[in-house]
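ok so for the tutorial part 2 we go from a plain amino acid sequence to predicted structure tokens. step 1 is just haveing the sequence, like this:
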Amino acid sequence: MIRKAFAMSVNPDQHEEYERRHNPIWPELEETIKAHGVTSYSIYLDAETNTLFAHAEIEDEAQWASIAEEPICQEWWAHMRELMPS
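step 2 — the prediction. this is what the tokens look like for a chain of 86 residues:
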């Protein structure tokens, strides 16, 4: 198992909408994440700094990287784009 951690940002006025869109995430997205060897994935919001801290446990770096090529992931990122600074 490989553990990954990374940070992202969310716009200050979009915290509630960000959480609403993630509860729950699209079933197809969850299936894709699991199919790419992700066994655990959590995101935490620090509302004071608008920082999202993510932690993932993965089986393989190549599988993890290939998620970006999946159409459902690209759709999700487009769906979330307006909530997050570029």
